[in-house]
Amino acid sequence: MFNLATCVSETYRRYRSVSQWLGLKATLAQWLTTPVVVVLPLLFLVLLPWIIPRLRWKRVISGVGALLLVLYFSATFPLTLAVAKKGLVAFIPPDSGTTVDAIVILGRGKPFRKSRVEVAAELWQAGRAPVIFASGAGDGSEIVEQLKEKGIPDSALSEENCSETTRENALLTASELQPRGVKKILLVTDPPHMLRSLLTFQSMGFEVTPHVSPVPSELSSSKTALLLFSEYMGLFSYGIQGRFLPQDEVAKEITPPVAKSRNLQTGNL
Fold first, then answer.
1. Residue 238 banded pLDDT, cuts 50, 70, 90
2. Is 173 exposed, middle or buried (0-12, 13-18, 19+ CB in 10 A)?
3. What's the confidence (pLDDT) of residue 31?
4. How many helices (H) and strands (E) does the chain have?
5. Would strands 132-135 and 157-160 be described as parallel, antiparallel, or unpaired?
6. Could you give the C-alpha distances from 2 to 16, 41, 88, in angstroms and in order?
7. Could you say which of 25, 75, 151, 152 would form a disulfide bridge with 147 (CB–CB 3.0 to 4.6 Å)?
């Protein structure tokens, strides 16, 4: 696995400034998926004209509160979620069934881990690729261990445990796999995350075949809505920053100066 020094190297740190927002994002996600924490403040805004009759702009404030309430509750309607999901998967090409150089699994947290491991194991057992590479802080090693439990040999597994964003997934995967001749990959992630991941990995010079793993069935409607909203915002953010444009040279610049992942050191790819 990656030496921890890689995660804090000066070269690498230049490309992960966005990670400072992860704590804020986690707090915001927790807040938005707790209805009482959202609804009570919005109800307060709606009722503000009756609480403070002399307040200026009271109708505007009350109207904004009412609009936000409607948006918050409508975001979890089944039809709203279905339309939002369709928009994120409409442009994802189907898995062509071709063999590739490596299967790449992107971490998304513990709830998503089991389905990704099952999908990747099935793809490897079907002979779609000789190796599996797991990418993600807090996920890489766990995914590898679960794949071992499914009978995948250690020689076919490698991982990195530094990346905390989709861009970092792509950068570190490129810096690890491309020097070993890996060009074609099977990318495994959930449907909402796939379009952004596909475009980002393609920008790093990979030829990507997408293969989706299901979203956990136990995910609540509010968390699903937040997940979809986050992906739409991610697509917009990456798009205006030019992160979907070819960036092969960027991937080469970030090649870690210290130990590579354990199996890649031995030239298993």
1. very high
2. buried
3. 58
4. 13, 5
5. parallel
6. 16, 45, 32
7. 152
Q: Which CATH architecture has domain 4-15+94-265?
A: 3-Layer(aba) Sandwich (3.40)
Q: Using an 8 Å Cβ cutoff, are 72 and 38 in contact?
A: yes
Per residue, the 3-state secondary structure of 111-162, as one string, reads: HHHHHHHHHHHHHHHCCCCCCEEEECCCCHHHHHHHHHHCCCCHHHEEEECC
Q: Which pair of tokens denotes residue 39?
A: 């609804």
Whole-number Å distance between alpha carbons of 191 and 87: 11
Most confident listed range (236-240, 244-248, 259-263): 236-240
Distance of alpha carbon 128 from alpha carbon 262, whole angstroms? 22
Rounded-to-integer distance, Cα 56 and Cα 243, Å: 44
74-118 residue pLDDT tens = 777 888 889 999 999 999 999 999 999 999 999 999 999 999 999
User: 185: helix, coil or strand?
Assistant: strand
pLDDT digits 0-9 by tens, 128-170: 999 999 999 989 999 999 999 999 999 999 999 999 899 999 9
CA distance 241 to 255: 22
Q: Which residue has the higher pLDDT, 9 or 135?
A: 135
DSSP-based three-state secondary structure for 209: strand
Which residues are CB-neighbours of 177 under 8 A, at least 6 positions away? 101, 102, 104, 133, 185, 264, 269
What are the sequence ranges of the domains in the chain? Answer: 4-15+94-265, 22-88
